[in-house]
Amino acid sequence: MTSNEPVIVLGAGLCGSLLTCYLANQGLHVEVYERRADMRNDTNAAVGRSINLALSARGIEALSKVGFREEVMSMAIPMKGRTMHSTDGKLTFQPYSKDGESYINSISRGDLNCRLMTLSEKNPNVKYFFEHKVVNIDLKNEQVTVQLPSGETKVVKGQTIIATDGAYSVARGTMMHMSRYNYSQEYLPTGYKELHIPPGPNGEHLIDKNSLHIWPRGHLMMIALPNQDGSFTVTCFFPFDGADGFDVLDRADDATLTQFFEEKFPDVVPLIPSLTHDFRNNPTSSLVTIKCWPWSVNGNICLLGDASHAIVPFFGQGMNAAFEDCLVFDRIKREEKGDWGQVFKKFQEERKRNTDAIAQMAEENHYEMRDKVGDHTFLWRKKVERLLGNKFPERFLSRYELVSFSLMPYKDALDRGAINGEIENTHND
Ligand SMILES: Cc1cc2nc3c(=O)[nH]c(=O)nc-3n(C[C@H](O)[C@H](O)[C@H](O)COP(=O)(O)OP(=O)(O)OC[C@H]3O[C@@H](n4cnc5c(N)ncnc54)[C@H](O)[C@@H]3O)c2cc1C
C-alpha cells in the first residue's frame, strides 16, 4: 500500500464524518462508505433532525480543533441545569455547575452530521459513497465488500480501514469471528421513545428553553431538550415489562394512554397535542452497552466511536466520547507518522480504560436521574457539592462537572468522583 491510497472509513455518522475532517487535514485521501442515502438531500431525514443531543466540553474541543467551534455554537442551545417536574406541577432547578456559568448544549443530531460531512468535503481529498452498505470485510487482505441498492457488490481497498459504523458494527462483527475476541453487550430493561412538544403560537418555547427538563418517577422517566425552532424533543425512558411498560402501553387505547400520562406526567399532557397518536406510532427502541477488545486486529483495521464502545445515554456522553476518540486518534497519528499498526495499538490502549469508565458512569447516572434527582438526600448532596466547590474552587469539582465541563480523562473523573462521594458522605454523617 502506498500513502496515496485512500484510508477507508466505514460509516458517515457523527464519528466518521468528524474523523474524516481530521484525516483529510493530515493530507490523507479518505473514502467514506455509508449505507444510508446522503441525508443532506433526503427529505425524510429532516424528521430525524428534531432529534437532539447534549454536546459538552469534550465534543466542543474535538470540533474546535477542526475549526468548527463557531458554527457549532451557533447551532446550539445552552442548557444551564436540570429543571425537575414533580407530579404536582412543582418545578425545581438544579444548576449544572456551582457558578452557573458552565452549561451543556442541545444540538440537532441531523444538522450536525450534515454540516460535518460538508465541512470534510471542502477538502478535495475526501470522497463519500452513499448507499454503499458494508457487507463483508476481509481482515487478512484488508478488503471491504460493499453492496449498492441494486444488489450489486464491489470490493474496495485502501491503505487501512477505520470502522465508525456504530453500535451494530459489521466490522466488529467480522472481528468477533477471530479467536480470543472479547465481546459483551448488555441491554437495559428500559427502552426509549421520542415525542415532540411543538413551539407556541409565536414560535416560542413553552417551557424554559435553557434547561434540560426531567420528569423523574422511579422506574419511569422523561426528559426534554430544546430545539432551535421553539420545539422540544421529549424522550420517554420506560421499562419494556410491567403494567406501565412499553409492551403494554404501545398497545393501549387513547383513553388508557391519556389516563397514564395524566396520572404520571400531568403537566406534559397539554404540551403535546398529538400525544396518544405519536406514542403509538413512534418507534420504541432499546438501550445497550457494548464492550469489546481489541479494537484493532493485525494492525490493519481499527474501531472508533459506538462501534467499539456504545454506552447508554444517561450522561449525554456517547457522541462526546466518539468525538474525543477522533481528537486522541489525530494526536497519536501525528506522533506515530506512517505506522498505522502502532497508531491503532496506542489508541486502543489509551482509550479503553476511559471508555469503560464512561460506560460505568452512564449506567450509574441512569439510576441517579430516574430515582434520585427529586429526592431530598440527593438534593442535599448537590448542595454540599456546591458548597465545597465554592469554598475550594481549585480543588473540588463534582463528577458531573469533571465529565461534562473538563477534559480530564474519564477514568480519572470516575476515580475523583468516588473520592468526592466519600467526602460528601462524611458531611452527611
Ligand atoms: C436516545 C439516545 C440519546 C443520546 N443522547 C446523547 C447525548 O445527549 N449526548 C451524546 O454525546 N451522545 C448521545 N447519544 C449517543 C450518540 O448518539 C452516539 O454515541 C453517537 O451517535 C455515536 O456516533 P457514531 O458515529 O459512532 O455512530 P452512529 O451515529 O450510529 O453512526 C454510524 C454510521 O454508520 C453507518 N453504518 C452502519 N452500518 C453500516 C454498514 N454496514 N455500512 C455502511 N455504513 C453503515 C450508519 O448508517 C451511520 O451513519 C445518545 C444515544 C441515544 C440512543
TrEMBL record:
Enzyme Commission number: 1.14.13.9
Cofactor: FAD
Locations listed in the record: Mitochondrion
Transmembrane segments: none
GO molecular function annotation: FAD binding; kynurenine 3-monooxygenase activity
Statement: the UniProt record of this protein carries the keyword Metal-binding: no
GO biological process: 'de novo' NAD+ biosynthetic process from L-tryptophan; anthranilate metabolic process; kynurenine metabolic process; L-tryptophan catabolic process; quinolinate biosynthetic process
GO cellular component: mitochondrial outer membrane
One Pfam family in the UniProt entry: FAD_binding_3
Catalytic activity: L-kynurenine + NADPH + O2 + H(+) = 3-hydroxy-L-kynurenine + NADP(+) + H2O
Keyword line: FAD, Flavoprotein, Mitochondrion, Monooxygenase, NADP, Oxidoreductase, Pyridine nucleotide biosynthesis
Residue stretches making up the FAD-binding domain: 6-326
Annotated pathway: Cofactor biosynthesis; NAD(+) biosynthesis; quinolinate from L-kynurenine: step 1/3
Superkingdom as given in the UniProt entry: Eukaryota
PANTHER family linked: KYNURENINE 3-MONOOXYGENASE (PTHR46028:SF2)
Family to which the UniProt record says this protein belongs: Belongs to the aromatic-ring hydroxylase family. KMO subfamily.
Protein purpose: Catalyzes the hydroxylation of L-kynurenine (L-Kyn) to form 3-hydroxy-L-kynurenine (L-3OHKyn). Required for synthesis of quinolinic acid.
Protein name (Swiss-Prot/TrEMBL): Kynurenine 3-monooxygenase
Gene coding for it: KMO
